[in-house]
Amino acid sequence: MEIKQIEQQFLDYLKQQNAYEEALSLMYWDLRTKAPKKGAEQRAEVIGFLSQKMHELSTSDEMKSYIDQLKGVTDNAIIQKSVEVCEEEYEKNNKIPNDEFKAYKMLQSKAESIWEEAREQSDFSLLQPYLEKLVAYNKKFATYWGYEDHIYDALLHQYEPGVTTKTLDRVFPELRKELTALLNKIKKSTVQPDPSILQHAFNKENQQAFSLEILERMGYDFEAGRLDETVHPFAISLNPNDVRVTTRYDEDDFRMAVFGTIHEGGHALYEQNIDKKLALTPLATGTSMGIHESQSLFWENFVARNEGFWTNHFDLFKSYAPAAFQHLTLDEFYPAINEVKPSFIRIEADELTYSLHIMIRYELEKALISGEIEVKDLPRLWNDKMEEYLGIRPSSDKEGVLQDIHWSAGNFGYFPSYALGYMYAAQFHHTLKQELDVDQIIKKGDFEQIKAWLTKHIHKYGKMKKPLAILEDVTHEPLNPSYLVSYLTDKYSRIYNF
Amino acid sequence: MEIKQIEQQFLDYLKQQNAYEEALSLMYWDLRTKAPKKGAEQRAEVIGFLSQKMHELSTSDEMKSYIDQLKGVTDNAIIQKSVEVCEEEYEKNNKIPNDEFKAYKMLQSKAESIWEEAREQSDFSLLQPYLEKLVAYNKKFATYWGYEDHIYDALLHQYEPGVTTKTLDRVFPELRKELTALLNKIKKSTVQPDPSILQHAFNKENQQAFSLEILERMGYDFEAGRLDETVHPFAISLNPNDVRVTTRYDEDDFRMAVFGTIHEGGHALYEQNIDKKLALTPLATGTSMGIHESQSLFWENFVARNEGFWTNHFDLFKSYAPAAFQHLTLDEFYPAINEVKPSFIRIEADELTYSLHIMIRYELEKALISGEIEVKDLPRLWNDKMEEYLGIRPSSDKEGVLQDIHWSAGNFGYFPSYALGYMYAAQFHHTLKQELDVDQIIKKGDFEQIKAWLTKHIHKYGKMKKPLAILEDVTHEPLNPSYLVSYLTDKYSRIYNF
C-alpha cells in the first residue's frame, strides 16, 4: 500500500480515538457541572464502557501495525510525532496485563469514593488498605514500564516526561533552602498585610460578572468555551474549539472565584491556542502537566497578583464590589492579596509556601514507591514534615494527609508537576522580561501581547515538543529554580520591606 | 452454550448500544443548551462516528445471532421483547444498502441546514431539490421495508407501529368535520376571549421560578433531571434517572414558557416513570411518538388548561407575575389562555385547530410518497389546504410550508403522531374520568393521583407494549376520535357560550 494511504488510515483511526475522548470529556464536564445525581450510577457504566473502547484502540494490533509501518518512514512531521505519542501509549498500556488493568481501574474508582468518606470523617485508617493496594499496583506498573535510576522515575514520566528524581533532587533542596530563608525574613518583618480587609460579603453574580470580564480581557474565546460553576474548579478541552472553564464562588471571599477563574483561564488559553493543524491527533493538547500548570500559574500569579494588574483593574473591581470594598486603597489591597502565611491546605497556599507543600508530597510518595516507608506511617510522617518545612502541625488527617484526591486516584508522580509549573512559569517570565516590559504591559492591561508571546513560544506546539524541549527552546537553559527565587524575593521584599 | 449465558451476553451487548445512546443524547442536549458554537463542527464529526457505531451494533452478525438464538426461546419477558425490538431494527436497517444509508444521512444533515437558510429567506426553491431527493429516498426505503395497503404505511410504522393510512383515513375526516363545525360555532359566538390581557412584560426569572414550581408539583423528579433554556424546547432521556427538560422564555408572553415547560414535563414524566427493570434495554423509552405526545398534551391541555388548575394556581401565578396581571380575574384569564383562532404556525395553534394543521401535512406527505403530487407543488397546495381547512392563506413560505423542520430532516410519517397524541390523550382522559373525579383532583392540585394513574397504565411499560395495545388495554376500545370531539365541545361550549 502507498504510504499516503496508510497515513490516511492512521489519521482516520486517530479520529476514532478522538471521538471517544470528546464524548468522555463531555460526560466528565456534565457530571461535575450539571448532571442530576440519580443519573450518575448508570453514567458510570457508560464512562467505563467508552474508556474501555479508548483503551482497546490504543492497544490494538491495528495500532501496532500503523506504528510499525509509519515510524521513521513518514515525512509528515505531525504524523511522525503522532506515531511517537501513540507508540508510547501502546507500550505503556500493553505492558500491563489486561486483568490487572481492569482490577486497577475498579480499585481506583472504589478508592476515590472511600477517600471522600475518609476525608469527611477525617479518618486515614479507612483509606489505608486501598492506598496500600494502589501503591503495590504502582510499584508493579513502574517495574513493567522500566526506569534507569529510580523506580519512581517511571511514574513521574507519565506526567512530566524527561524530568527524573535526579532533576528534582537537584532543584528541590536548593529551592527549599531559599524559600525557607525568605519565609523567615517575612515572618520577622514588622510590615504585615491585613487580609481581613478582603473578607466581606460579595455576591456571586457580581463575582461572576467581574470574572467573566477578566477572562474576556485575557483573550479567552467565549465562542469556543464557557464558564460554569463547580465545587472543584477545572478547565477541560472537549475539542480545540470547545475549551470550558469552571469556577467556585465563595460569597465571603472573592479570591476563590477571581483567582480561580484566572488560573483555569490560563489552562484554557493553552488549549484554545494550540495550532489547529494538530486537531484530531493526540498532539492537540498540552504537552505535560507541568507546562500546563506553568500557564495557569503565569496568569494567576505573575499577571493577576502583580501590582500593575490591580493599578489597572482596581476601579473595575470596585465597580462590581460591594460598599465594604469602596474605601480600600491599592496600598492596602495589593499586600492583602499577597499575604504569605504557612497553612495546612495546599490549594489555599500562597505563592511562596506552595512549593514546600509539594516537596513534602514528593518525598513521601518517592519513599512509598521505593519501599522506604509504609502507607500506615503516612499521617505521622506527613505531620512531621509539615512541622519541619512549614512550622505548623495538622491536628487532623483531614487537614493533613487526606486533603488531596491524587493518591486515592492512584496518581503517584503527579504532585511534582505543580512545583515544576511554578519554576517553569518563573523561568518563562524571566525570558519574557528580557524581550518585553512585562510590568508595563500588565499595567496597561495589554494582555494580547502576553497571550501572543505564550502562543508563539508554548501554546501552539501542543504535544509537538516535550516539556523540557519547550523550556530550553524558550529560555535557552535547563530548569533553573533561581528564577522563581529571584521573582519571589523581588516581590516580597517590596511587600514586606526587607 | 446455556441459554442463560446467551441471555447474559445479549444483555451486555445491549449495554453497549445503551452507552452510545447516552453519549449521543448528552451531545445533542449539550449542543442545544450550552455548547460554544465554534466547537459544533468537530462535534458533528464525533456524533457521526458514534452514530455509525450504534448502527453497526444494531445490524451486526452478532446481533443477528442473538436474535436467532433467543427469539421465542427465552422465558424472560423483558429479553423476549428486547429481542423483538432489536429484530425490527435489524431488519429495518439491514434492508437499506450501506452506501444508501450513508448518502441519506449526509443528505439529511445538509438538507436541515439548507432548510434553516430557506426558512430565513422564506424561499422554498432553495430547499426543493433536497426535498425531492429526500422524498425519493423515503419512497425507496418504504419499498425495501414493505407494506400491505399503502406505501406510506411503511413510513408511518417507524413512528406509530400499528397505525396505518386506513386508520387515519377513517378518523381524520370524521375529526375534521366535527372540528370544523365547532370552529364555526366559535367564530359566530358573541363571546370572545381577549388574549391581549396576557401580553404584558413578565421577567424570565419569575417565569422560570413559576415553571419550576409547577414541574415540581407535577411530580417531576429534579434529582433525576433538570430544566434549561433553549430556542426549541424539548425533553430528552439520557438514562432512566437523567431525563432533562428545556423551555423557552418570551418576556412578552409567559404562555410560551409555562405551557411549554408543562408540555415537556409531560414527556419527561413518561420517561422518568418507566419500570427500572427495563433499564439498559431498548425497552426503557416511550413506546411511540403518538403515546409520548399524548402524555405531554395530557399535562399541557387536559390538566394545565383546565379551569380548576387555575382556580388552584392563580394565586401562585400572581405571586410570580408582575403588577399588570394583579387585577385580572379568573373569568378573564381562563378564556384568554383558551382562545381559539386559526393561525399559520402549527406550534402556536390552539387545541382545536392544531389537528387541522396535522391533517394538512398528513395529506400532503401521503400524496408525495405515493407520487400523486410533486415537491415543487407543495407551497401552493399547502396554502390551498390552509385556506380550505382553516380559512386563512399564508402570505409566504416561511409562514407556510417552510415552518417545520420534519420534512427536511427526512421525517415523513411523523406528523400524524401529533394528532394521534391528541386523540389518545382525550381517550385516556375519558377513561380516567370514569374512574376518578379528575376535575376535582386537578382543582385540588393532587397531581400525585394523576401521575400514579398514568404510570400504572402507560408509563411503566416503556416499549413492553405497542401503542395501540396500550390504548386498548387502558380504554377497552380502539382509537375513537369522538372523545377528543366531546372534550373540545364541552370545553369550548362553556367558554364561547354555545
Automatic annotation (TrEMBL), chains A, B:
Kindly indicate whether the keyword Zinc belongs to this entry. yes
Molecular-function GO term, any one: metallocarboxypeptidase activity
* Keyword vocabulary terms for this entry: Carboxypeptidase, Hydrolase, Metal-binding, Metalloprotease, Protease, Zinc
Database matches in SUPFAM superfamilies: Metalloproteases ('zincins'), catalytic domain
Parts of the chain that traverse the membrane: none
What EC numbers are recorded for this enzyme?
Answer: 3.4.17.19
Catalysed reactions, semicolon-separated: Release of a C-terminal amino acid with broad specificity, except for -Pro
User: Does the entry feature the keyword Zinc, yes or no?
Assistant: yes
Which chain positions lie within coiled-coil regions?
none
**Uppermost EC category:** hydrolase
Residues of the signal sequence?
A: none
Q: Which cofactor does it need?
A: Zn(2+)
Taxonomically, the superkingdom here is: Bacteria
Q: Where is the active site?
A: E264 (proton donor/acceptor)
Residues holding Zn(2+): H263, H267, E293
The annotation note on the cofactor reads: Binds 1 zinc ion per subunit.
The record's listing under Pfam families reads: Peptidase_M32
- What are the BP-aspect GO terms? proteolysis
What this chain does, per the entry, is described as: Broad specificity carboxypetidase that releases amino acids sequentially from the C-terminus, including neutral, aromatic, polar and basic residues.
Which family does the similarity line name? Belongs to the peptidase M32 family.
Alphabetical list of PANTHER family matching this protein: CARBOXYPEPTIDASE 1, METAL-DEPENDENT CARBOXYPEPTIDASE
Which protein are we looking at? Metal-dependent carboxypeptidase
Give the originating organism. Terrihalobacillus insolitus
